[in-house]
Task: structure prediction
Amino acid sequence: MSSFTIAAIIFACIFGAALLAMRLRSVLPEHHLSTDTKDTVKLAMGLVATMAALVLGLLVASAKGAYDTQKDAVVQMAGKIAFLDRMLAHYGPDAAQARAMLKHAVEGAIARIWPRNKSEEAQLAPNAASGDALYESIQNLAPQTDSQRLIKSQALAIAFDVGQMRWLLFERAGSSISAPLLVIVVFWLAILFFSFGLFGASNSTALAALLVAALSVSGALFLILELDHPFGGMVRISSQPVRNVLEHLAR
Result:
């Protein structure tokens, strides 16, 4: 289910709760809408609002932290790939095949992680065959000088780091947001909007205010869900760092 669909369902739940309360108010006995009742409900809703705000902050921090982690991993991986290519260039002509394989592997990774058709899902699973072939190509280099031996050793270490980061990118692709936690927050928000509709004014201005508030809350949860899927949707991680590196590979 897409983030937009989930956000639309959330909007329908919380704004629908306000509309239901407005409809229910006309059939409630008068003493249920007394000043004392309103004060009691305000105190209870203050507690619910505080809990909802705290959990929303937790969801934002969790989603933003996961997004930043993946973004930093992409930038670091791009830097290591560029450095690996330069190391192989300094090794000499014998490393030309390894450099070509590195460029091909990066091109394939870009095509899978950032497909041209944005409606397609990102494929974060690494191409194990391509990675193994690149590592073996570097391993099969036969250095003739101490400088080449040092470069080969460092190139293998960097290739190992890149492969490890690529798998970590795949393993971290899962959602960082707990579904039960999200359901509880939406339930709390629905309760709040129900109280707004029950004890608030029933004119068009009040209705418009509730509509704007429901849209704002739903938009915030939409952004949280988008941040939780950093390689898909509207707030996706840019491929530019890796593409910038690709332009300089095997030159």
Remarks:
- Residues 3-115+122-246 form one domain.
